[in-house]
Predict the 3D structure of the following.
Amino acid sequence: MKKILFVLFFSLFVVGAILIVYLKSNPPLVINGYTSIDDNSTVRLIEIENKGMREIQLQSIVVNEKLPESVELVISKSEPFEAETKIEGNPNFTFHKLKQVKLFPSQYIDRQAIGKQPQHYALKLNTSDIQKISIQYEYLKMPFTVTAELQATK
């Protein structure tokens, strides 16, 4: 009986370790793109996507090794974030504090529910120059960080 319990606990431990290694090597949050908005060189939109199976809770953003002046989570209930997208005054865009809303997995988003459900997520940063961005978040109660080096936009 002790051997069976040992084998059972050891098997659970191995499966858990493999799951953690897999998640750490394939993080669920990805950065899809970035752009300046409204010809304002200090305001940037960083489009993000949850490629995982569960919701993501954003924790903090670090830009060029320091905290940005201001950061908001922008949720689009319609079109994706593009260079010419006007987000101010658009009823399909909502602005939230970083920890206020969880990011829904993109594979479960109903693309037919335009105007009713969140379709795209972005971070609105108020900073002059972004060379490196780090996003800390929680997925399945585990901490993750995604870091990206960004090229200057013209």
